[in-house]
């Protein structure tokens, strides 16, 4: 790997034990991460899933005590929602070093050996802040991401010429949980900003620079992913967790979210209606605050979104969101979705828990309400 020599030099400043591990890690870059071990990623139709932990936005250079709390919650599965590291680079050797820093977090090491882990990405682990299709190293970054998470070499996720979207189904009929991981980066068109003279005032208000783009050509997902998503929504499942790295239901356009390309969000909701997909719940990360949002207008049934962010960071500002019904919570947190399959009408609990494991936000919904009326 042509990047290795420069980065080996950079490692002289690392502790000796870490620099040796990093050297081994990087020298294996062409074939993946040596010693990579996660518990199985594939869906298991024989095993009902009742406790799904999720989170986003973990600075690999900072302590991550929250993993011990996640483990104590005894989840059946952990879902990364993006910004799993802060890569922010076009140098894939640097990207690998940052994944190594996550790999060596003691609590995370316990998690990946104990709990099945699945993941999508957001902008920082994709490679550039707020980036979309224009990021020049997206194919290379995809390879590093899939190497880290132990994706099989023959999987469609690797072999397709496109993003990292994928899905899993867990549990037998009557208790099936489908998890759909979207890729909101690989094909997304560039976002539209307010004119430069308006930006100082927006900055002083902590409002961000983006505005809604009504151009019919603007995209969050590419055509291939849209066709794939329609097929996924037609598969049988009782509960569908649709993971988007960016918020789906927030109506705020200043920062990243589906609201910046509103016709794509309406297309998503229309697709749920057209396919007759029941049991849809959105989950997201990105914004460094946790909340629950709900939308009924124009929806086939009440649509809920659990936003879990950040695992080891605090929010610097709170964006407005008229669809927010719980929160925001701005301290480090993770999300938990719990399903009580023993009820005649299963109950789905959407929760945010703090670093001590205490629930700080919670809403309970019945599965029967996630069906077109």
Offer a quick outline of the entry.
The chain has helices at residues 4-10, 16-27, 66-72, 92-103, 106-114, 123-126, 138-148, 156-159, 199-204, 223-233, 262-275, and strands at residues 51-55, 77-80, 117-119, 166-170, 177-181, 192-193, 210-211, 239-243, 280-284, 290-295, 303-307, 324-329, 333-340, 347-354, 359-366.
Notes on the protein architecture:
Strand 8, helix 11 and strand 9 form a beta-alpha-beta unit. Helices cover 26% and strands 21% of the residues. It is globular and about 60 Å long. It starts with a helix and ends in a 7-residue tail after the last strand. Strands 4-5-8-9-11-10-12 form a 7-stranded mixed sheet, with helices on one face. The protein has a 6-stranded mixed sheet with strand order 3-2-1-13-14-15, with no helix packed on it. A two-stranded antiparallel ribbon has the order 6-7. Helix 4 runs parallel beside helix 7. The N terminus is likely disordered. It has 373 residues and is α/β, with parallel strands linked by helices. The protein is built from 11 helices and 15 strands.
């Amino acid at each position: 790997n042509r990047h290795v020599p420069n980065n080996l030099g950079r490692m002289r400043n690392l502790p000796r034990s870490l620099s040796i591990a990093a050297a081994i890690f990087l020298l294996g870059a062409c074939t993946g991460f040596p010693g990579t071990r996660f518990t199985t990623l594939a869906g298991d139709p024989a095993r009902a899933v009742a406790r799904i932990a999720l989170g986003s936005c973990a600075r690999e250079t900072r302590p991550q005590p929250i993993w011990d709390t996640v483990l104590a919650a005894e989840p059946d599965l952990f879902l990364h929602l993006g910004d799993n590291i802060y890569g922010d680079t076009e140098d894939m050797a640097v990207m690998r070093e940052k994944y190594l820093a996550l790999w060596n977090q003691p609590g995370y090491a316990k998690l990946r050996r104990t709990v099945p882990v699945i993941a999508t990405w957001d902008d920082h682990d994709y490679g550039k802040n707020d980036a979309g299709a224009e990021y020049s190293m997206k194919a290379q970054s995809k390879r590093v991401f899939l190497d880290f998470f132990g994706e099989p070499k023959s999987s469609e996720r690797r072999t397709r010429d496109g993003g990292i979207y994928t899905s899993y189904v867990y549990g037998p009929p009557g208790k099936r949980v489908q998890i759909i991981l979207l890729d909101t980066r690989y094909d997304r068109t560039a976002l539209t900003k307010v004119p430069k003279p308006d930006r100082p005032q927006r900055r002083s208000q902590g409002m961000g620079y983006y505005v809604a783009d009504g151009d019919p050509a603007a995209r969050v997902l590419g055509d291939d992913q849209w066709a794939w998503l329609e097929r996924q929504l037609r598969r049988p499942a009782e509960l569908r967790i649709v993971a988007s790295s960016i918020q789906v239901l927030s109506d705020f356009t200043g920062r990243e979210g589906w609201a910046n390309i509103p016709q794509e969000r309406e297309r998503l909701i229309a697709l749920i209606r057209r396919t007759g997909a029941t049991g849809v719940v959105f989950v997201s990360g990105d914004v460094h605050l946790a909340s629950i949002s709900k939308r009924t207008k124009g929806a086939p049934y009440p649509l809920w979104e659990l936003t879990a962010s950040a695992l080891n960071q605090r929010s610097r500002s709170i964006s407005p969101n008229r669809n927010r019904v719980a929160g925001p919570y701005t301290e480090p947190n993770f999300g938990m979705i719990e399903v009580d399959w023993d009820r005649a009408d299963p109950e789905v609990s959407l929760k945010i828990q703090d670093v001590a494991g205490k629930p700080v936000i919670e809403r309970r919904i019945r599965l029967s309400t996630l069906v077109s009326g």
